[in-house]
Design brief:
Layout: E1 6-9, E2 16-17, E3 28-29, E4 45-62, E5 65-82, E6 92-93, E7 96-97, E8 113-116, E9 126-144, E10 150-167, H1 172-175
Antiparallel strand pairs: 1-2, 1-8, 2-3, 4-5, 5-9, 6-7, 9-10
Length: 176
């Protein structure tokens, strides 16, 4: 296999690549230029928004007994734009490795081609939206006993739920 951005025919093992900026079904023999694959871990734009609040309730039915509740609610949303991560060699749909079939009209080699990683720059950057909702609650009671003893019992509960949505990404099942 060649470097990322290359295609290799399964039958012969030669390497081909799509020249950068190409808008035709042309592939060239050899290895792809080093900049044809997008570097990972770079974020083009990001925005994070957080809001939340808390509610504190105290109830003292007597001077020696106090009930309390603390409720905290938070919502965080992060919207990011990252380069399209493309695909890697060996990426699969189901149990089938992605390949460009020999009978594809844009495959001039007439051999099955397996991508060895493609930047997929032409599909544009990914857009990601992550939303996390958190709820945290503490409920308890304080009891003042004789001789300076104080008993405080509480119960805490919390949960966070997140959803992460990507748009503008390549759907491998539709690319064959």
């Amino acid at each position: 296999m060649g470097p990322p951005g290359t295609l290799f025919p399964v039958q012969t093992g030669s390497t081909f690549f799509t020249p950068p900026g190409s808008t035709s079904p042309t592939i060239a023999p050899g290895n792809a230029p080093a900049d044809s694959f997008i570097p990972f871990n770079s974020e083009l734009a990001a925005r994070e928004e957080r809001y939340g609040g808390s509610l504190k309730v105290n109830f003292s039915p007597t001077d020696w007994l106090n009930f309390y509740d603390l409720l905290v609610v938070n919502r965080t949303e992060e919207v990011g734009v990252t380069p399209n991560q493309g695909m890697s060699s060996g990426d699969q749909v189901g149990n089938t490795v992605l390949f460009i079939p020999a009978n594809n009209p844009f495959n001039p080699t007439h051999q099955d081609l397996q991508p060895n990683g493609q930047g997929m720059n032409e599909f544009g950057p990914w857009q990601e939206d992550t939303i996390t909702r958190t709820v945290f609650n503490v409920v308890g009671a304080t009891l003042q006993l004789p001789k300076g003893w104080i008993v405080d019992a509480s119960l805490a509960y919390g949960e966070s739920d997140s959803t992460q949505t990507y748009s503008m990404q390549l759907k491998p099942m539709r690319s064959n």
